[in-house]
């Protein structure tokens, strides 16, 4: 819990003084809204707490707005990648001894 003397990452966010409507466009596909998104991301690009902001938005599943320089679609993509199970190498399957032939060739070189 934050005490009155502790600083929170939001206290250092440079968007605190910006128009909140800039960070919450009503859509993301229209050209004017893409410009609004670009402008919001530009502010995020100069912010000292962008990583904290993005981490928070990913942790709580923030569905709207520009957070940490990302759109809702970009955050969904990041969450899907983070939630994906670890990828493991598949076992090598030998067909007509091709794996052994390849290993012998590599060892002989």
TrEMBL record:
Compartments (UniProt record): Cytoplasm
Posttranslational modification: Upon Fe-S cluster removal intramolecular disulfide bonds are formed. The Fe-S cluster can be nitrosylated by nitric oxide (NO).
Main location per the UniProt record: cytoplasm
Pfam family membership, one: Whib
Cofactor dependence: [4Fe-4S] cluster
TM segment ranges: none
Superkingdom of origin: Bacteria
Sorted UniProt keywords: 4Fe-4S, Cytoplasm, Disulfide bond, DNA-binding, Iron, Iron-sulfur, Metal-binding, Transcription, Transcription regulation
Note describing how the cofactor binds: Binds 1 [4Fe-4S] cluster per subunit. Following nitrosylation of the [4Fe-4S] cluster binds 1 [4Fe-8(NO)] cluster per subunit.
Domain 4Fe-4S Wbl-type: 14-77
Binding positions ([4Fe-4S] cluster): 15, 44, 47, 53
UniProt cross-references to InterPro entries, sorted A to Z: 4FE4S_WBL (IPR034768), Whib (IPR003482)
Family note: Belongs to the WhiB family.
Function: Acts as a transcriptional regulator. Probably redox-responsive. The apo- but not holo-form probably binds DNA.
The protein's name: Transcriptional regulator WhiB
Species whose genome carries this gene: Actinomadura fulvescens
């Amino acid at each position: 819990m934050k005490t009155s003397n502790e600083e929170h990452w939001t206290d250092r966010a440079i968007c605190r003084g910006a128009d909140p409507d800039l960070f919450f466009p009503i859509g993301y596909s229209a050209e004017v809204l893409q410009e609004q998104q670009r402008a919001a991301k530009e502010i995020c690009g100069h912010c000292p707490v962008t990583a904290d902001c993005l981490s928070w938005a990913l942790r709580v599943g923030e569905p709207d707005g520009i957070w940490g320089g990302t759109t809702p679609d970009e955050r969904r993509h990041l969450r899907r990648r983070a939630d994906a199970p670890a990828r493991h190498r598949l076992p090598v399957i030998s067909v007509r001894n091709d794996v052994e032939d390849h290993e012998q060739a590599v060892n002989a070189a």
